[in-house]
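Colleagues,

For the teaching module next term, I've prepared a clean inverse folding example: a structure given as tokens, and then the sequence designed for it. I'd like students to try predicting residues themselves before seeing the answer, so please don't circulate the second half yet.
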């Protein structure tokens, strides 16, 4: 089975898939930068607010890294085909209860969906990292690896904040 996969894997196909998947991740980050400020305003737990603000800053830094990859590859990101990630981000926003009487429900909804979003990004970044290592030009791999490290840290941060919130 392994030899069949290797025979059909050309550098052109790999590059095409890499660009498409990188575009999906980039577009998800665009959606996040649009929605995170609203979640920061809605959060009532101070450490959650700080984690969301940190995630927003990190997302912006990751977008710069992803744009750099596109520039190095002399490609533009595709602005479609990211319905799944956008749906999760939209669902997260819709599930947050914008009601002053329901702080716990709102904060826990934010934490739940941020955990889902971060873990989706970890999985996507891991796959991109594997593909980048197979591409001829290695700086892609370093930039993707940096993004992967950031999303792993943020996934851990939201897990920590959730534990802290449930203990308070």
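(Answer key — instructors only)
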């Amino acid at each position: 089975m392994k030899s069949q996969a290797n025979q059909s894997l050309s550098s052109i196909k790999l590059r095409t898939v890499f660009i498409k998947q990188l575009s999906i991740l980039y577009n998800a980050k665009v959606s996040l930068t649009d929605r995170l400020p609203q979640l920061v305003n809605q959060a009532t737990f101070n450490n959650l607010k700080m984690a969301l603000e940190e995630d927003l800053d990190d997302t912006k830094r990751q977008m710069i890294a992803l744009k750099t990859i596109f520039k190095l590859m002399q490609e533009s990101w595709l602005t479609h085909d990211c319905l799944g990630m956008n749906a999760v981000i939209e669902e997260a926003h819709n599930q947050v209860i914008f009601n002053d009487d329901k702080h716990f429900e709102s904060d826990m909804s934010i934490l739940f969906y941020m955990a889902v979003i971060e873990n989706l990004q970890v999985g996507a970044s891991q796959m991109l990292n594997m593909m980048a290592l197979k591409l001829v030009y290695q700086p892609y791999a370093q930039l993707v690896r940096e993004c992967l490290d950031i999303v792993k840290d943020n996934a851990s941060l939201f897990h920590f904040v959730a534990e802290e919130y449930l203990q308070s």
